[in-house]
Specification:
about 325 residues; mainly alpha; 10 helices; globular; transmembrane; membrane; THH1/TOM1/TOM3; transmembrane helix; THH1/TOM1/TOM3_dom
Length: about 325
């Protein structure tokens, strides 16, 4: 008897949720609201990528990770300027490039979602795909840079040459961009649905590759840090940082891979249309906004000033 009462209630709940979903998706007002919320969130993350958060004084162990922020939020100095002033002799370090790319990706996404309805009118249609997908490629490059940084630390600690890592990084990115741009040009020349499908599947593969990169080098660095002496300064904090960032980035790229596969095979999961705003909100929150925010918060210290505290090599 109880079951016969629960079943209709559950069915009614599902019907109501489905009706709400359809109502929001088909409402131009709700579409604009959700896209503007996404724009605001991306703008906030872009600002955080440049503005500092706290006053913590970094330790020598900070050389194991990126450092992203270190003053009060009300400070008028942006983070890139502060890093340049702190260690100007290093030029454009990996840390500064990581900062800049985070700002660039989130800033461009902010502008795209502000103009989302206008972008949907662009012709030929391939222009829409380029504008919506290019920031995703830049996001891949940004976090592949973090994998490169960890790989360099790992191999240097094991006294293995790192000469081939940076050329490999540039080669992999060059191949990814070349293949994707080639697919876009072919679609522009002769729009075929199969090529759009291949483009989405290709990016799903790129996302899976990035997830495995974090699992491999994040996992290796985590295990290496575990073998450090217990009394090593900063060991516990670095273990937490590497563990958290590895988990966050692996999960985000894995979710992106899965979602891109659904996007390719099922029109209901299409992310490049106006009438799926709720899906867009969930997707971009999970694969870009939350991961970027968490990583920028976890890795938030400046490098020490030269002449006061020197970096020490890992032995």
């Amino acid at each position: 008897m109880a079951r016969s009462v629960v079943d209709p209630l559950a069915a009614y709940g599902l019907i109501s949720a489905s009706a709400w979903w359809e109502q929001v998706n088909n409402s131009p007002v709700w579409q604009d609201r959700i896209f503007h919320v996404l724009s605001s969130l991306y703008g906030l993350v872009a600002a955080v990528a440049l503005h500092p958060l706290d006053r913590a004084i970094p330790s020598p162990a900070s050389s194991l990770t990126f450092s992203l922020t270190n003053e009060a939020i009300w400070s008028l100095k942006v983070q890139l300027v502060r890093i340049q002033l702190r260690v100007p002799e290093y030029g454009w370090t990996t840390q500064k490039v990581f900062h800049f790319l985070n700002f660039l990706v989130n800033g461009v996404r902010c502008l795209i979602f502000v103009s989302r309805r206008d972008i949907q009118k662009f012709q030929p249609e391939i222009l829409q795909h380029v504008l919506l997908d290019m920031p995703s490629l830049a996001f891949f490059t940004t976090y592949a840079l973090l994998v490169l940084f960890w790989a360099e630390i790992y191999y240097q600690a094991r006294a293995v040459s790192t000469d081939g890592l940076r050329p490999s990084f540039f080669t992999i990115n060059g191949v990814v961009y070349t293949v994707q741009i080639t697919l876009w040009l072919i679609i522009w020349w002769k729009p075929i649905h199969v090529l759009v499908f291949l483009s989405k599947v290709f990016f799903a593969g790129v996302s899976l590759f990035a997830a495995l990169g974090f699992l491999l080098y994040g996992g290796r660095l985590f295990l290496m840090l575990q073998r450090f002496p217990v009394e090593s300064k900063g060991r516990r904090k670095k273990l937490q940082e590497v563990g958290y960032v590895t988990t966050i980035c692996f999960s985000c790229f894995l979710v992106r891979c899965i979602m891109m596969c659904f996007n390719a095979f099922d029109k209901v999961a299409d992310l490049d249309v106006l009438d799926h705003p709720v899906l867009n909100l969930i997707y971009y929150m999970l694969v870009e906004i939350l991961p970027s925010s968490l990583v920028l918060f976890i890795l938030r210290k400046l490098p020490p000033k030269r002449g006061i505290t020197q970096y020490h090599p890992i032995r």
